Amino acid sequence: MTRSGINALAESGRALPMLMDEIATKVNNAKDKTRKLKVLKENDSVALRQVLKGAFDPNIEWLIPDGDVPYTPNDAPLGTDHNILSQDARRLYLFTKGGDNTLSSLKRETIFIQMLEGLSAGEAEFLVTVVNKKVNNKYKGFTANLVKEAFDWDDNFMKKEG
C-alpha cells in the first residue's frame, strides 16, 4: 500500500491495515495454539505468507549478514511517512539466494537498509527478526509448525495437495 493509499484509508475513517509486527505480537500474546492459529488465519495474505515462509523455510537462504543491521529506525508517527511490509514483501526476493544474482553484496545490503528505514520501527525490527530466522525467539509460540498448520502447508512450506 502506498502512502497515498494509507492516507486515503485514514481520511475515510477506516483503520490502517494491521502491520506484521502487530500480527506477530498478537500471536505472541495469544494464550493458546487455537488463538494463535486464529490470529494468523484472520490476517492471512500473500505478503504475510511470503514473509513467514522466509522466516521459517530452511531452504530460503538470506544473503544479509546475520545479527543487528546498522539502520536508523523510522520514528515518524504510524500512518504518516512509512512504507508497509505487506507492500514491500514483493521485493524480499532481492535479499535471498537465487533472487537477484546481479546485485553486489554492498548494493543488496544498501537496498535492505533503505527498506528497513522506510518501514515503521516495529515492522523493521520484525523484518530483521525474520531475516535472522529468530521469530520464535522473540515471539513466544510463533513456530514453523504453527505457520504450517495455519496455512495448510506441508514440510516444504508449500500448500498441501489433495
Low-confidence stretches: none
Specify the helix fraction band: 40-55%
Straight-line distance between termini: 34 Å
Number of strands: 0
Structural class: mainly alpha
Please tell me what the overall shape is. Answer: globular
Total individual domains: 1
Total helical elements:
9
Strand and helix layout:
Layout: H1 3-11, H2 20-29, H3 33-42, H4 46-56, H5 85-88, H6 105-118, H7 121-131, H8 135-138, H9 144-150
Helix pairs in contact: 2-3, 2-7, 3-9, 4-7, 6-7
Folded structure, characterized:
With 162 residues, the protein is mainly alpha-helical. The protein has one domain. The chain is built from nine helices and no strands.
List the main descriptive attributes of the protein structure presented here.
162 residues; mainly alpha
Describe the structure concisely.
This protein has helices at 3-11, 20-29, 33-42, 46-56, 85-88, 105-118, 121-131, 135-138, 144-150. The chain is mainly α and 162 residues long.
